[in-house]
Structure formats: C-alpha cells, structure tokens
Amino acid sequence: MRIDDLVEAWRVNDKINLELLGLCAAEHLEFKPGKGKTIRSNYVHLIGFRTHWLAEKMPAEAATIPKLDWKTATREEITEGLQLSGTLMETRFRAMDAADKPGRQDVLNFFAYCIAHEANHRAQIEIALRLNGAEPEDKLLYRLWEWSRK
C-alpha cells in the first residue's frame, strides 16, 4: 500500500460526504432516521469525530477546526468543517505512515475505521431523507458510488 493511494481514497470519501450534503436542502438538515441524529447533527458529529482523532496527535491543528453546534450549524459551516478536518486527516494519515514507531493502531486500520464510521453516518443521512419523503433521485444517489469520477 502506498500512502498516496490511501490519501486519495480519503479524498474520495470527503467528496462523497460533500456531495451527499449537496443533495440535502436546508430544510432537510432537521430530518431524522427515526429517533437518531438529525442530518445536521450527523455531519457535526463527523467533524467532531475527526477533531477528536486529530487532537490526539495534532492538538494545535485540531484547534483550528471550528466547534459547530449540532442544532444550528449552517451548510456553509458544515462544508468548511468537513473540508478543513478532511485535509488535516490527510496530514494525520501521512504522519502515521512516516512514524518510526507505530502507535496503537497502524495507518491502514485507522483509515478503515474512519471510513467505516463515516459510511455509517452517510447511511443514516440517506435513511433520514428516505423516511421523510425527500429521497434524491436514483441517478443522484448512484453518482455517490462512481468513485472513478471523483
């Protein structure tokens, strides 16, 4: 595995998060998949999750990510938070790969954990849209899986 390939896969993940956010109208941000988080709070959670992992090894950089309110964060704030935290996560992956002494988790396992976590929340967002009658057209949802075009 090359770290450049892993980082590129992370960038695809980031683009998918942003594309899915783009499919959500402002009023959709309050939708929930049953009793779970709102779409807005799912995105705020992703940013907070990334910030948590960044703060562990890169506290100064993590502090640059704005703390968003899960009830009021705007699409613009969410977009900025995803972009900034996504770029910093790339730095964290590269630092883990370059480390002389591996930490408690190697870079590939940590990457897989992060991707699985974010995919879980994207599924919650899609379910919230469906259950609330705002399911995007199939062609738009399928586009999320066209990774070679990202």
Cα shape:
globular
Poorly predicted runs: none
Order of SSEs: HHHHHH
CATH homology-level superfamily: dinb family like domain
CATH C-level category: Mainly Alpha
Q: How helical, in percent, are the residues?
A: 55-70%
Proper CATH architecture: Up-down Bundle
Summing up helix and strand content along with how strands pair, one would put the structural category as mainly alpha
Short structural description:
The protein has 150 residues and is mainly alpha-helical.
Layout of strands and helices, then pairs:
Blueprint: H1 3-22, H2 39-57, H3 59-62, H4 75-98, H5 107-131, H6 138-143
Helix pairs in contact: 1-4, 1-5, 2-4, 2-5
Keywords for this structure?
mainly alpha, single chain, Four Helix Bundle (Hemerythrin (Met), subunit A)
